Amino acid sequence: MPNEPANEKKLIILPGEGTGAGTDLLDALIHHFSDGEATISDLDPKLIKELREELERSPFFSQDMKNLWLMLEKALTKTGRNPGIDDQIRLLNLACGHCEEGSILPAFFGKGGKRVRQFAMDLRDREIDKARRRYNMTENLFRKAGIPRVREKDERNTVEFVADDATHLVGYGQVPARFDVIFIRHQNLWHDREVWKKIYEFVINRLEPDNGVLFITSYFDREHILALELLKTLGGNVLFTEQNPHTRELDYPGKTVDRHVAAIVQS
Length: 267
Ligand SMILES: C[S@@+](CC[C@H](N)C(=O)[O-])C[C@H]1O[C@@H](n2cnc3c(N)ncnc32)[C@H](O)[C@@H]1O
Known about the structure:
Layout: H1 25-33, H2 45-55, H3 59-79, E1 88-94, H4 104-109, E2 115-122, H5 125-144, E3 159-163, H6 169-172, E4 181-184, H7 193-206, E5 213-218, H8 221-233, E6 236-243, E7 260-266
Parallel strand pairs: 1-2, 1-4, 2-3, 4-5
Antiparallel strand pairs: 5-7, 6-7
Bound molecules: S-adenosylmethionine (SAM).
């Protein structure tokens, strides 16, 4: 992953801000971390300003998360599905690496008031360690800002970080048998097709049959096409796929952040 230049100019607009879209990222994060107790309008504007400045401190983070959020919103709408049972979503964030989106995903899927139980998993211990620290830092930011009841431990509304091989998940029984949402950011089919075939077999079979949705994003055009072809042969039905109009260029030709986003369900 490229490092962010320290002197990058900041001009970040969070989702919904000034657009009338009504999906403010900060509002969703406040909802997530306060366990639904607070919304942006309940809080001191000075505090809101400080939280925004904190979130925008890392320009690529805000930009990428804003774009991911908008793409997920579009993809989910196009599926016509409303994943989750009652007010609960079981979310698997697979091959999550250092998991930039660890707090954004439950905020996104929980914005309608649902409880989100997220399992974030990656093969590499070091990445999972970083992911856990990153999530805790964000949580602390909200706690320090005095957001009421920063996520009490409620087993229906948690984030668990698991360092393990996704292809072993079936045997371990350490995660739920079914998921309402499975998310794979920057899927990596090209790295090892056989391993990723096993991962995709797992995710297609573990989606809640009636309304479960798999979201994948890809860095490259060709890799995305190949992943969708493979998913179809494994019983996936691609309901939505689109090139992200706001994708950010990276250090390799043709490689950009969340270049493609797709939503897949069980056939
Ligand atoms: C291209 S990286 C994407 C990481 C992260 N999702 C992101 O967007 O930055 C692919 C990730 O897949 C993980 N991975 C590869 N094989 C895996 C497996 N069998 N089980 C779990 N994770 C795996 C790697 O450790 C790596 O972090």
